[in-house]
Specification:
By secondary structure, this protein is of the alpha+beta class. The protein is built from 18 helices and 16 strands.
Length: 519
């Protein structure tokens, strides 16, 4: 049988399947060689012999091969990106490699978060799913309209689809979905069929939500989402008097199901008729939320937050903000400060702009704080992620984060406005003492931060300005300022960080009742 060393004699070529270049053959002669360069390349399917192709089919790995894996060559290891829907195929790929390189030890290790390693002899293959943004990403409106299309098709047939294959077999439905995705994104449709199957199954098979209960789903135009966008624009406020400015700050629902949409809209308008006529104060959002809770309990209306599904059979339908229990994330309510991990060392890493707060020993939930675009000045965003789920939990409204940060304590310096921070090295010099105070405090009060010394950090920030990366420097200073204020105002107070997570997950009285379909 072939060994890894003999396999390296194959000529590299552009294409689909990973191999190692002939240059690596030289270091195999000396198994103890260290720091030897490895070159990762592809070979096309045409370069694989019949036995290879047969094995690919046997171990059900041909799809991950055919769709391609992008590879970056490194010393001592190889980084491989693969399409996320093939996450369950990585162990099968390990079985395939074990039967190709039979003279070498092959080890497989699932690292969590869809990352994995396969070691073939001395070679370490590190797998991570491709990020959507690196591909021809399907716009959110198309994703959501696709759900509307398949939900309405279920209503027409008055029954759900039993499998993805059944969806593909419905030529009328597939025609509507292809039209929805347009020619530009038609190739992405297959990536969404699993999500659409799981969404329609989980929703319509719920005991309260059979197809016969609902009127047609609408997207844009006269949809409930558009209705509520205008309703919010006309004026609503939270209990503390803060005005809700956008639909997204209040409600994560992407589409709505209604028994009688037009009648429901009239009922909601009528309920607020007197409130709207008063010049002050603005109507309370709690009144609208309570009305929606009533409708949801009567199974007359439900807003649905849609998330892309990557793992078949792991999808669930959850309800939020309907009962006191569903207004809290049960997994985190009893956490103490020792249950939280602050991974903020990226503040001192060259161009990295994201820091993390992780919750619990298993880190089931995560808040990440970052700058969205590293190429220009911008403000921080506060995002949530759930472990084991393919989709983000949501983004916290920034004004709510600021209100929470300033509710307690006297430190009010954080504004989340990049213009308040030095855009050049001269202005940095003027604020250097204040920044040193905040950085030193943060380094002292965050055991898990891994931050470098102030002197090294000071030189590092100056280098960013000199390297024409002031926007990166500003993002670091903004995060230092945020964490400094948080630890100053809420010393050893886990409830602040739990509340921050709740804001990102859109959980609590100020947010709308809704259902979420996710894996």
């Amino acid at each position: 049988m072939r060994s890894l060393q003999s396999e390296l004699t194959r000529p590299p070529s552009g294409g689909l399947f990973l191999c190692l270049d002939k240059y690596f053959k030289k270091i195999m002669a000396n198994i103890r060689a260290r720091n030897a360069a490895m070159v990762a390349q592809y070979i096309t399917k045409d370069n694989l012999d019949a036995k290879d192709i047969k094995m690919l089919r046997q171990y059900k790995t041909q799809l991950i091969v055919s769709d391609g894996m992008s590879v970056d060559p490194f010393r001592e290891k190889i980084e491989i990106e693969y399409l996320p829907q093939y996450n369950n195929d990585i162990p099968k790929l390990a079985d395939y490699l074990a039967n190709v390189f039979i003279n070498d030890d092959v080890e497989y290790d699932m690292l969590g978060g869809k990352k994995a390693t396969i070691k073939v002899g001395k070679i370490n293959l590190k797998f991570a799913p491709k990020k959507e943004g690196k591909r021809n990403q399907t716009p959110t409106p198309i994703q959501e309209k696709g759900t509307t299309v398949i939900f309405n098709r279920v209503l027409d047939k008055n029954k759900t689809y039993p499998s993805v294959e059944a969806i593909k077999a419905d030529t009328v439905l597939m025609g509507l979905l292809k039209k929805t995705f347009t020619k530009k994104f038609e190739d992405n449709l297959d990536d969404w069929l699993l999500s659409y199957f799981e969404q329609q199954e989980k929703f319509f098979l719920h005991k309260d939500y059979s197809p016969s209960k609902w009127g047609p789903f609408e997207y844009n135009g006269s949809s409930f989402t558009q209705f509520f966008r205008k309703f919010i624009k006309d004026g609503l406020q939270t209990i503390d008097g803060t005005r809700i400015k956008t639909y997204e700050q209040w409600n994560p629902a992407d589409i709505w199901a209604a028994y009688d949409m037009d009648a429901m809209k009239t009922d909601i308008k009528d309920a607020f008729e007197i409130d709207r006529k008063k010049p002050k104060p603005l109507p309370r959002v709690s009144k609208l939320n309570n009305l929606l809770i009533q409708y949801m309990n009567e199974s007359r209306l439900v807003g649905i937050s849609l998330k892309k599904i990557e793992k078949a059979g792991a999808t669930h339908l959850e309800f939020f903000n309907i009962t006191p229990k569903s207004m809290k994330i049960s997994q985190v309510v009893n956490y103490k400060m020792n249950d939280l991990t602050f991974d903020i060392q990226n503040i001192a890493e060259h161009t990295k702009v994201t820091t993390y707060i992780r919750y619990g020993s298993t880190k089931t939930h995560e808040m990440n704080i970052n700058l969205g675009d590293k190429k220009k000045f911008g403000n921080l965003s506060f995002n949530t992620q759930i472990k084991g789920s393919s989709a983000q939990g949501g983004q916290a409204p920034v004004y709510s984060v600021i209100n929470l940060l300033h509710t307690q304590g006297s430190e009010k310096s954080f504004k989340n406005d990049h213009s308040d921070y030095p855009h050049d090295i001269v202005k940095y010099g003027k604020k250097r003492k204040d920044i040193e105070k905040e950085y030193t405090y943060l380094k002292t009060h965050t055991k898990t931060s891994g931050l470098i010394s102030w002197t090294d950090f000071d030189n590092y920030i100056k280098d960013l300005y000199m390297e024409d990366l002031p926007q990166i420097a500003v993002s670091k200073l903004m995060q230092i300022n945020f964490y400094y204020c948080a630890f100053k105002n809420y010393p050893n107070d886990e409830q602040f960080w739990i509340s921050l997570l709740h804001l990102g997950m859109k959980v609590g009285k100020r947010f709308a009742p809704h259902a979420k379909i996710s894996d």
